[in-house]
Amino acid sequence: MADDDTVKKHAICFACAQQCGHIAVVRSGEVVRLMGDRQHPRTAGFICPKGAQAPQLHNSPDRLHYPLKRRGARGAGEWERISWDQALDEISAKILALAETHGPETIAHSFGTIRSSDCAIGTRFMNLLGSPNAVAQDKICVGPTALGEFLTYGFGPSLPALEAGITECFVLWGSRPMQSARPSWRSKEAALAGDTRLLVIDSARTEEARRADLWLQPRPGTDAALGMAFLNAIIDAGRIDADFIARETVGYAELTERASEYSPERVSAVTGVPADDIRKAAYMMSGSGPTAFMAGNGLCQAGVTAVQHGRILACLIAITGNLNRRGGNFLAGPPRDILANGEWMATDALPPAQRAKALGADRFASIGQHDRLDELVGRAWYGKRGVAHWLSSAHEPTLWEAILVRDPYPVRALIVQGHNPVGGSPDTARVREALLSDKLELLVAHDLFLNATSALADYVLPAAHWMEKPYFSMGGASLAWSGDYVEANYAVIAPQFEHRSDYDFFRDLGWRCGQREHWPERAEEFFGQALAPAGMSFDQVAAHHGPLSGAAARHPDHAGPPAPSATAYGTLSGKVELRSGLLEEWGQDSLPYFRRPHIFERAAAYPLILVTGGRQIEGFHQSAQQTDAFRRKNPHPFVSLHPDLAGDLGVDEGQWVTIETPVGHVRQMVRFDDRHQRDVVHADRWWYPEGEATPEDSFGVLATSINVCTSNDPGDVDPIMGSWLMRGLPCRIAR
Question: Per the omega criterion (within 30 degrees of 0), is the bond before 264 cis?
Fold first, then answer.
């Protein structure tokens, strides 16, 4: 191959949410190699196995290349290749007929965790269609802790701002950035190499825990109790910022009374953390110098207390005076001029009467009464609306009931995009039953691969890989939580075969459903519409190497400091609410608390504790598992057992065992691991492809996927947001 046939291009990897800068080596329209971009100002040459293996994933022989239409029964594996035009004509005709006959709310859309710039763009299509039932993964991702901060500060998540020589303590809580966020971790190492002390709170002895000045190892599922004990110890010792509390907060007296119920001695019995260590940690995070806090998504998957983790974290940051403090945590807010998340998603197109029909709105206030939160947040942040729209998606477990028992009303059509709910959602058998049901008249899957969900669809459509799409991010792609910040890049290569991006799929579907004026021809034009209020274009941002931030990401008329209103808080009182007025308005407990999920009422026969979902740097959700790098390390679904526990059970490494909770049971292969406590069992989150597809058990999911064992029982889910229980379940192991 001639040398002049090879070119190098800047690329922003979207194999996970870190979005690292890379250099792509492209030969004859094919990416033959990805390398870290040493000149990228944010990631400075870092590349992980997911990025390095992206060309292999893109070129996988298992990729879907052409639209398929089901022949025969769902799940039978009988397909007919058709054109995109035929698929879209038939899908749009069915959607329009169902919407006209039964109402647009009977159409639902479910999509996976952020994986590209146009992820979640189907929400725009749904709002324009008149359906409130766009279903995201916010309930088990960063959403609960972010919502807890929104309820306290009027924005979230707060961002840690470590500074060498400034930050006194860094609290890393339930997070493994060395595996899941290496660029973020590397940016903090300069502070940790100096005088900043590291406090790690994690049920596993992670690499971060090995480096910590103090490591607390609570029993999984008890972090909220531990956090309440921190509040107790800090308040009891008077290690508070009294001036900040008096000036900026409401509800301190009530918080003090609530925290008094959680003495370190009482909480020690619940968490397994010695009372003296609880006090040591409380004192570390409440010193005279700044403390920065960083919490992980594991706290978001604790079910009934998921939002409470965010509330507790926000209260700790506030009473210690570390909010908007140099070296502590800060609220970046949304971009001042670039469109907010909800504006992107055309939330104003959805009538309030339709919004009120969102699945879960009758049970979970953050869904049904989200407009109230949105209104308050807008008061503080430039009058913008839709800032927190990403936290108000419909409730996925309720979706399956709407299909099967038509409660609260029937859902008759579902579009699944970049998501595998049969593998990744709780109560797996129920999910699969819903997707196989004749009551679901249309099931469409748009994905890179056939999987346990797409194999059941009526239409399977080939998705574009991130290298085949333009890149655009306002901080967390469309989530826009990093203040005045934007980055863009052109697609590395053109879409191959008949792959289509999320944007192009919904553009073409939208054009057929009467939405032509709302969908520009090219995604770059759409991204440009978001930039227009800031006086910028997509081409202008893409021409810049790395992100634009601060004044460079605002309109020239706003080159100065942000408006004074941005320093207020988007809450009912306009202050930091340690006692949440909005929660009280919603009929919820206005103060943070700890409570065990109801599943523990059935725990007598289940002496062990199950955790799921620990991140590996080689994999991020469903896609990377298709690469050789991941498969070499994980040839089977593994359950990690402490060697002492395995000895007591009489099981050996490499042996298959049954994992059982009160919800269900699966089998995985034993791997010894002493990083967890002796009675803690860690099971792989999921593993694709689990096995050979059969009509009875698509891809072997029912036999091996740990989500057969996780819970969405009403007594186990968060009452504010509906987050289901994935960590800290009672379990047992059998040979």
Answer: no
